[in-house]
Structures are given as C-alpha cells and as structure tokens.
Amino acid sequence: MEWLHRNSRRHRPPIPHVSRDIPLVVADVRAEADDVVSLRLVAPDGAPLPAWHPGAHLDVLLPSGRLRQYSLCGDPGDHRSYRIAVRRIADGGGGSREIHDEIRTGGRITARGPRNAFPFVTAPRYLFVAGGIGITPILPMARLAAARGADWRLVHTGRTPESLPFSDELRALDPDRVWIRPDTEYGIPTSGADLLEQAPEDAVVYCCGPIPMITAVRLALPGARASALHWERFSAPPVVDGRPFTVELARTGRVLRVPADRSALEVIADQVPGTAYSCRQGFCGTCRVRVLSGQVDHRDRVLTDAERGEHMTICVSRASGHLVVDL
Ligand code: FES
C-alpha cells in the first residue's frame, strides 16, 4: 500500500510504528465475492480493541509466520471487532491462500497496529475510486463521508459483478452516489478521465486499486475538476530513478546484481526462498536487514535516522556501487 498526496511525493510523512501484539480470534469467516472472504476478528476475552480511523490497516501475523497488511473495512465505531477482507491471489506469496484455505472460525492470529498509511482528510466533497479488493480502505471512508453529510460519489470497478465485494453495503449508503462498474457490463478498461468525471467540483479523490487504474487516474487529474488525489496500491511500486548495484550476501558470499528496474528484495528473494517481506512498499519494516558496508539510498518510511545508520529496507531502498548485507 502506498499513500501519496499528489503534491508531496518527496515529503511523505513517516508512518508511526505500532508494534503492540494483539491476539485475536476469528469470530466469523464470510464469503463476500468470488475469491474474497472477510474475517471478523475479536479479542479472546471480548475486550475492546484499539481504535482506528478509515484508511487504517492491521499487520496480520499468520500461523505460518507470514506477516501481511490488510485494510480495516468494518465500522470504526465497533470497538469490539475488526473486519478485514482478503482476495485469494493464486500466484501470490501465500498469505491470501493461507487465509482462504486454513483460517477458520475459532482460529487464532496475532495482529499489530492498527496503523494508518492512508489517512482520511475532512473535506466537503469526495470522489472514491476503488478497483476490486481496493474497496476495503475506501468503504469506511465512504461511510464516514455519508455520515458527515459530505457530497460524495463512489466508483467500484472490477471484472464481474460477482467479483466485487460489499456492493450491497455500498448501495445501502446511497444508491444514487454509488456506481458499481463491472467490466462485463461497461467494457474495459475505463479511462482515468471517465472515472474522474464522476467527481463533484473540487472534490478530494481517494483511489485504491491496481497500478494501471491508479496511473490512469493520476494522469487524468490535471484536467479534472478534482483538487487532490490520495491513493493506495496493494502491490510493490515500480522502481523510480533506479540505478543498478550489486548486493553481497555476507553469510554465503553470494553477489547478486540488482538491475535498475528491480528491487533488491525481488532479486534476493529469487535466490533465497523465504526472504522475509510484507508490504513491499517501505512502511512495515519486515524486510529490514543489517548493512555491513556500502552507501544506501534510503527510500522507506519506517526506519528512524538512527536505524538507518545500520539497517535498510531491501524492498524499496537502493545503493550505489556495492553493498554488503547481513543475509
Ligand atoms: S516489506 Fe515492508 S518495508 Fe519492506
């Protein structure tokens, strides 16, 4: 996930790290759409859970040890349960398959957070644009916008009606403000201009979904009547301004070449199965490694200056020349 204001790419705020572990019990598993389930999570003793705001996510530690981020998509006013939703990614890193195939009602997981990398600002007008499972952070935002009496519109795109979760909940907010847009009915792909066409004058746009959709919206923004764009993606960002470098894995002496358009994490994970990662966007810290020598170009949002003296996140940070890491 990544949050950006369109004017602030180089000045992103650091995301406060919330490292408390919260043991949770799966109170309910529900099929929400094709290949999408939601989990309702509660404290084992039913105690109140830490508060959250729309846009927040949980770091979920799965029984296998995998750590994954999932946006909270329930009601922030419900202090006794969290809801997350997960699309099964057949060829992903295994986290979604584990949830779909192995997590059942009564199962236990550990969560950290909630943390908010996609904060929801107060505004009089909004356009919400979601692609597929990208509806998860957007749903609580739309609910809050509706509760506050804001002027808002929402577009939810996806392959088929059956692939789109929470359509009934969205329509229940206000069917006149919600456009459920499956490709099977409207054709593919919709353009960024078409999506932004839905925006009320001077609206703040919140966009979450696949990279092509976000890119289309970003490119169309200058000609639109929207005033600002906040967006979040659920995959690794493309490398920007990358230069090739080499990384040496000190424990084996293996030297790997990281090309300009790939991350060190991708290259290392190809060679070292089980390399730890989670967000792949520089905000969770899971991929952090100790740097033994080399000049690091830090691009994360999680390490403090002091931590950067010895560590780097290999999912986004890069290096010039030769780097030696404790792997
Ligand atoms: S995987 Fe999250 S910071 Fe690298």
Automatic annotation (TrEMBL):
Membrane-spanning ranges: none
Cofactor names: FAD
2Fe-2S ferredoxin-type domain location: 245-327
SUPFAM superfamilies (alphabetical): 2Fe-2S ferredoxin-like, Ferredoxin reductase-like, C-terminal NADP-linked domain, Riboflavin synthase domain-like
Pfam families in alphabetical order: Fer2 (PF00111), NAD_binding_1 (PF00175)
Alphabetized PROSITE patterns for the sequence: 2FE2S_FER_1, 2FE2S_FER_2, FAD_FR
Residue stretches making up the FAD-binding FR-type domain: 19-121
Keyword Transmembrane belongs to the record: no
Alphabetical list of InterPro entries matching this protein: 2Fe-2S_ferredoxin-like_sf, 2Fe-2S_ferredoxin-type, 2Fe2S_fd_BS, Beta-grasp_dom_sf, FAD-bd_FR_type, FNR_nucleotide-bd, MRET, OxRdtase_FAD/NAD-bd
Keywords: 2Fe-2S, Flavoprotein, Iron, Iron-sulfur, Metal-binding, Oxidoreductase
Protein name according to UniProt: PDR/VanB family oxidoreductase
Classification lineage: Bacteria, Bacillati, Actinomycetota, Actinomycetes, Pseudonocardiales
